[in-house]
Design goal:
By secondary structure, the protein is an alpha/beta fold. It has one domain: Metal-dependent hydrolases (TIM Barrel, Alpha-Beta Barrel), CATH 3.20.20.140. It is built from ten helices and eight strands. It has an eight-stranded parallel sheet, with helices on both faces. Strand 3, helix 3 and strand 4 form a beta-alpha-beta unit. Helix 3 packs parallel to helix 5. The longest helix is centred in the C-terminal third of the chain and has 19 residues. The protein is globular. Bound molecules: zinc ion.
Length: 254
């Protein structure tokens, strides 16, 4: 399977999220035990302090195992050099997408500063993955509005709306052709409905592995085990865990 939502260790930012410490080898060992073939790895420290250095460190981490780890960097869209940093992290560092966390990073997805950032990302064949599911910032409707302004950019709802917004996430995914939904922390009853009603080619799965301060990744492994309880068909499982993420990632190198 391909895990579309994992995080780097926390190297410099101790936060209320905890922040795990682990090596690339530790992470690959976890992936092997959880049967994860490839993982999209998002910044941790960059979400709290979006300096280019955070993208350098992410690139160095995934660069130790480039066949299996795919890095998505981050920028703060209000910084004047944000679009240039998207260019640099994609073309120079080999990252394949951009992670935004409007709630933690403190901006609205309706801000105009996001347009040059999205244009730079589209030009580089990148993917935008946004945290979602936590009003007032990061609602699926706000993210869908941005996706509609940039119809050639694949935009991923990183948490499928979580508990509060999954109905909105599902409705907007159905109505927005370039919007994808990653089931990650989404409750099982919601995941069941999403799989039944969302466009089959636009559902992804993620564990948020790496975020917790626990050395082991028991929580992530439990999320994978949960899938069996969703009443999912073999076709749905294969689309969500293999075919959809593979197709989307292949687009980034096209
Ligand atoms: Zn996350």
């Amino acid at each position: 399977m391909i895990d579309f939502h994992t995080h780097t260790p926390a190297w410099r930012t101790a936060t209320w999220l905890g922040g795990a410490r682990f090596s690339v080898n530790d992470f690959i060992t976890f992936m092997d035990t959880a049967d994860i073939e490839r993982a999209v790895v998002l910044s941790h420290d960059g979400l709290f302090d979006a300096r280019p250095q955070a993208n350098d460190e992410l690139a160095a981490f995934v660069g130790q195992c480039p066949d299996r780890l795919i890095g998505f960097g981050t920028v703060h869209p209000r910084r004047p050099d944000a679009a240039a940093e998207v260019d640099r992290m994609m073309s120079l560092l080999g990252l394949r997408g951009l992670k935004l966390h409007p709630w933690l990073q403190g901006f609205s997805l309706h801000e105009h500063s996001l347009d040059p950032v999205c244009e730079a990302l589209t030009a580089q064949h990148g993917i935008l993955l946004s945290h979602d599911g936590t009003p007032p910032y990061s609602t699926p409707a706000q993210i869908a509005a941005l996706a509609r302004r940039h119809p050639r950019l694949p935009v991923v709802l990183g948490h499928g709306g979580l508990h509060d917004c999954w109905r909105e996430a599902l409705a907007l995914t159905r109505e927005t052709a370039n919007l994808y939904l990653c089931i990650c922390g989404t409750p099982p009853y919601a995941a069941r409905r999403i799989l039944a009603d969302a466009p089959a080619g636009r559902v992804l799965f993620g564990t948020d592995a790496g975020l917790s301060d626990r050395k082991s990744q028991h929580y992530a492994t439990a999320r994978i085990a949960e899938i069996d309880g969703w009443g999912i068909t073999d076709d749905q499982r294969r689309a969500m865990l293999v075919d959809n993420p593979r197709r989307l990632l292949a687009w980034t190198t096209g």
